[in-house]
Structure formats: structure tokens, C-alpha cells
Amino acid sequence: MPPDDKRTMGLRERKKAKTMAAVQMHALRLFRELGYNATTVEQIAEAAEISPSTFFRYFPTKEDVLLKDNYDPVLVDAFEAQPSDLNPLQAMRGAMVSAIANMSADELATMRERNQLIMTVPELRAAALNNLTQTMQLIAELAAKRTGREPDDAAVRTFAGAVIGVNISVMLHYAKHPDADFAELLDEALSKLEAGLPL
């Protein structure tokens, strides 16, 4: 791809990410003020100064304004940067904890607020399951690549499911204890998984 095309694509992607972030910020504010169920797509679009049709270009549903994020590429980069002598669980633990540690205070506050809404609004929690299933597939692909296995290998699928299960348990706890340190909770939970989940 010629350098000018790359620059244009980079600009387009940055503009898209900036618009998405602005829409999500306005949506969170309205959810806080009016409640999730009482807030309409039209109100979010108006607050973000876009049309409802533009909203739906970025977010197919109202739920997606909370569920859609840019964390997957961050997780992939952090996982691939882990030392090669770590097993998949150690590498995933290091990747997840370091990705959260690199978030700004504003990003952490937004994550906290999104998590509380997702875990406490029934339709959002149900919609989050599809999102988590996609993340589980991503984790399976990362683990498969690291171990030389296939993503649909039973052990790889089980590994990915266990990591997602840990994440769900941490998200639920964090929704009830928003002042907790999410990275610390996740690190502790993944360390228990690594130790074989002794009870």
C-alpha cells in the first residue's frame, strides 16, 4: 500500500475511533442521568451531534455502545510481547494485567462505569455473553499459536473458557466493589487458576 494510502487509512481509523469514543462518552453520561432503559439512541445521537443513522454505522444496537471496545488488539499485542518461556496461562495473565496497568485514569473510570452497567442491567449482561464468546475464541487462537495446536483443540478451548470464566467472576465482583483495583483482582484470580484452583 502506498504511504499516502496508509496515512489516509490511519487518519480515517483515528477519526472513527475518536467519534466512537465521543458517542460512548455521551451515552455513559445519559445512562447515568436518565438510566439505561430510559435513554434512547436518538438522545445519544443528539448529544454526540450525529444522526441516528450515523450512530448505527458505529454501533448496530444500543447495547453495543457499551459492549464495543478496542481492547482486543491491545490484548493481542500484550500477549505476543510476553516472554516465550511462559506457558499460555502465565502469558495471558501477564498480558491482561499489563494491559490494564497501562490504562489512563480516565480509561479505568470508563471501564469501571461500563462494567457496572453491563453487570447490573439484565439485557446488557445477556448481550455481553456474545462479546465474551468472541473474546474466548480470540484467546483460543492466541493460545493455539503459542502452543502449536489448533484453536478447536479440546485443551485449548478449555483453557480459553477457563480464562473467560475467571474474567466473568472478576467483572461481577468488580461491579459490586467498584473501588477495588481491577488489575489486582484479575491477577489474583488468574493466579488461583494457575495454581489449580485450590479451595
Automatic annotation (TrEMBL):
The entry's keywords: DNA-binding, Transcription, Transcription regulation
Protein name per UniProt: TetR family transcriptional regulator
Domain HTH tetR-type: 17-77
Gene3D superfamilies xref list: Homeodomain-like, Tetracycline Repressor, domain 2
Segments of the chain annotated as binding DNA: 40-59
InterPro entries, per database record: Homeodomain-like_sf, HTH-type_TetR-like_transc_reg, HTH_TetR, MftR_C
GO molecular function, one term: transcription cis-regulatory region binding
Pfam families recorded: TetR_C_14, TetR_N
